[in-house]
């Protein structure tokens, strides 16, 4: 999530101190009562040895019980009563299973997606993307909870306020930071989508695969404060999400400290299940700026109430939500078990003993390593042996790399690696043991996005997409290249991300929006980023209608975006596109054969694992590798009239490894 920013005097030292205070500097700020078991402070991971296993310590297998869920809800409801804000309160486990949804009497049934755009102005009759859409309050609460669970790990505890900080047009977001680059995870909010083919759907209770994850989120990841992670024994076990005020928005000014009732309610809910203070977002900085965990602290809360029996049926009740919960409380699954859908790999599945894979709940790898499915379009598709080597080499790089969003310092990077063919079909997915869950879907989005925009078929795919076809000419005009999107340029996700920002170059106000962004910079919001949103808005709309109707309307299909199928039941962009770095296309000579995506622990680190991992696989194999230098996107120079701006391809960390002082590891490759 880290990238170089032109971070000058726009924020004063006093403002930075204010930022660091906003998330609670110690346990008294956000975890006022003891955890059920002592929450151990994390320790640095041992220095790794390249190519060996046993370098990671898998997280303890912990989960929320029914009693835990009852306590969390009762505590949250008590604070909501004290603040006179009837709310919808949701609890999920680490892989996104909805364990309960509680609606207080008088709570808003619906919420409105924020119309706020750049400069804090509300869109007036020009809403784009998801702005202004009415959604069930239950879907907003679930999205907040999923966000808190999916962004967190044993080394970092992130909230929806953290998410808000890192997805906006300037980082950090504030009136005084105009002119800085966009947030490091710009675009991540449109992942974990209800149409994603990776994320699992609601499955009937009692089936062997009922609780496998990762589960989908109804609205993607949330930037609206009120979603906080839950921990036991220092292990993330889920999250709570609260929707009460009817406004599904974001915080565009990090310089103030909000009095946010929804966040206070969530904070009350996590008492006894708070993350260790040492890993909270406010203990993690990005280029000198502390991230934000919560603007509310324990001293802001009313006396805790934890008697669920006293509120159930009188203050409110458990409710069903179509596609997510039957209206009762269930226990969470322990991450790392077969039942959770994510577990340690076997020796037959992957050679590195540290790797985790996605499973179907019955012992089978959901995405076993295989060769390319695209022989109709590619003369020599990727072989299973080649895919295995790419994943192995990428995992080796990952295992040696220094983490950027984990505490303590000098922890090892944790992430997910995905490989796809030119049809977007999954050829293999591996994870490190404690990589944040969000990176699974995002790594796949990244791999598919790099392969798609580098593909000779991209032009026709976009021309045949309803409501999207004009984007082809817009890109060509912007780049001054009438052949753009016909396979002549290899695009990494960093390259496409350059073109997806509301200002080009990124953050420089007064410049035009990138061609993949909204038509006008002033239209941008975290709910309207341009092509990324437009490709999936109909799917999200169909799903929201499905939930709101109680299942009487048709749910979205499990293949995002409106691009045509490349083969029956196959879409190249089956879980949407992603627009922040961490992927490169895979080539055999000068012919595209697939893509690799990495996500979880720093965007420069993600770039390095994909680029250097593929380079090392190419050295080992002699058959495939990175795109030829002559066609990489960093050869493209955009003429802005009074300036020429070169696209980027990848950006690797300067000195990234724990076991060597080697620098500039991607230079010249």
UniProtKB/TrEMBL annotation:
Annotated spans, Disordered: 28-57
Classification of source organism: Bacteria, Pseudomonadati, Pseudomonadota, Alphaproteobacteria, Sphingomonadales
Origin species: Parasphingorhabdus halotolerans
Protein name listed in UniProt: Heme-binding protein
Signal peptide interval: none
SUPFAM superfamilies noted in UniProt: GlcG-like (SSF143744)
UniProt feature, compositional bias: Pro residues: 35-49
One Pfam family this sequence matches: HbpS-like
């Amino acid at each position: 999530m880290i990238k170089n920013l032109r971070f000058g005097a726009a924020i004063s030292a006093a403002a930075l101190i204010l930022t660091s205070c906003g998330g609670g500097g110690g346990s008294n700020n956000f975890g006022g009562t003891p955890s059920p078991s002592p929450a151990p402070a994390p320790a640095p991971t041992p220095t790794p040895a390249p190519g060996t296993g046993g370098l990671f310590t898998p997280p303890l297998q912990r989960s929320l019980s029914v009693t835990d869920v009852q306590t969390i809800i009762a505590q949250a409801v008590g604070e909501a009563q004290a603040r006179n804000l009837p709310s919808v309160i949701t609890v999920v486990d680490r892989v996104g299973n909805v364990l309960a949804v509680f609606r207080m009497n008088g709570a808003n049934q619906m919420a409105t997606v924020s119309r706020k755009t750049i400069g804090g102005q509300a869109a007036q009759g020009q809403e784009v993307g998801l702005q202004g859409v009415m959604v069930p309050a239950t879907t907003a609460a679930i999205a907040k909870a999923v966000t808190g669970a999916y962004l967190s790990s044993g080394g970092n505890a992130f909230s929806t306020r953290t998410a808000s900080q890192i997805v906006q047009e300037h980082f950090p977001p504030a009136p005084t930071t105009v002119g800085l680059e966009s947030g490091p995870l710009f675009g991540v909010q449109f992942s974990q989508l209800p149409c994603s083919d990776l994320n699992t759907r609601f499955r009937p209770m009692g089936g062997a695969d009922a609780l496998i994850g990762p589960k989908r989120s109804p609205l993607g990841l949330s930037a609206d404060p009120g979603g906080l992670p839950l921990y036991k024994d220092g292990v993330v076990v889920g999250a709570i999400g609260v929707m009460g005020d009817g406004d599904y928005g974001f915080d565009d000014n990090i310089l103030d400290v909000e009095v946010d009732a929804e966040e206070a309610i969530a904070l009350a809910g996590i008492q006894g299940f708070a993350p260790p203070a040492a890993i909270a977002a406010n203990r993690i900085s990005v280029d000198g700026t502390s991230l934000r965990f919560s603007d509310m602290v324990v001293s802001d809360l009313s006396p805790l109430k934890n008697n669920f029996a006293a509120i159930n049926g009188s203050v409110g009740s458990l409710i069903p939500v179509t596609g997510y919960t039957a209206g009762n409380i269930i226990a969470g699954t322990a991450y790392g078990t077969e039942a959770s859908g994510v577990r340690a790999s076997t020796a037959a599945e992957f050679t590195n003993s540290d790797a985790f894979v996605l499973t179907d709940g019955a012992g089978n790898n959901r995405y076993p390593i295989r060769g390319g499915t695209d022989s109709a379009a590619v003369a020599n598709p990727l072989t299973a042996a080649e895919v295995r080597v790419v994943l192995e080499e990428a995992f080796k790089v990952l295992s040696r790399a220094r983490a950027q969003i984990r505490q303590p310092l000098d922890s090892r990077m944790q992430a997910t690696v995905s490989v796809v063919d030119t049809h977007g079909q999954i050829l293999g997915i591996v994870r490190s043991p404690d990589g944040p869950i969000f990176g699974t879907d995002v790594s796949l989005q990244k791999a598919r996005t790099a392969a798609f925009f580098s593909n000779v078929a991209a032009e026709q795919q976009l021309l045949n997409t309803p409501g999207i076809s004009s984007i082809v000419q817009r890109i060509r005009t912007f780049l001054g290249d009438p052949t753009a999107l016909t396979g002549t340029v290899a695009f990494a996700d960093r390259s496409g991300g350059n073109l997806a920002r509301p200002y080009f170059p990124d953050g420089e106000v007064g410049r035009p929006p990138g061609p993949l962004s909204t038509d006008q910079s002033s239209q941008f919001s975290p709910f309207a980023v341009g092509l990324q949103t437009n490709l999936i808005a109909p799917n999200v709309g169909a799903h929201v209608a499905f939930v709101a109707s109680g299942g009487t309307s048709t749910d979205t299909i499990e293949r995002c975006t409106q691009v045509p199928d490349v083969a029956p039941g196959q879409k190249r962009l089956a879980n949407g596109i992603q627009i922040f770095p961490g992927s490169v296309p895979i080539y055999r000579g000068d012919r595209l054969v697939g893509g690799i995506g990495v996500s979880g622990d720093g965007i420069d680190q993600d770039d390095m694992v994909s680029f250097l991992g593929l380079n090392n696989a190419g050295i080992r194999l002699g058959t495939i590798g990175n795109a030829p230098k002559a066609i990489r996107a960093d050869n493209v120079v955009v003429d802005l009239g009074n300036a020429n701006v070169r696209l980027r391809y990848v950006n690797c960390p300067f000195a990234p490894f724990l076991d060597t002082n080697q620098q500039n590891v991607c230079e010249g490759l």
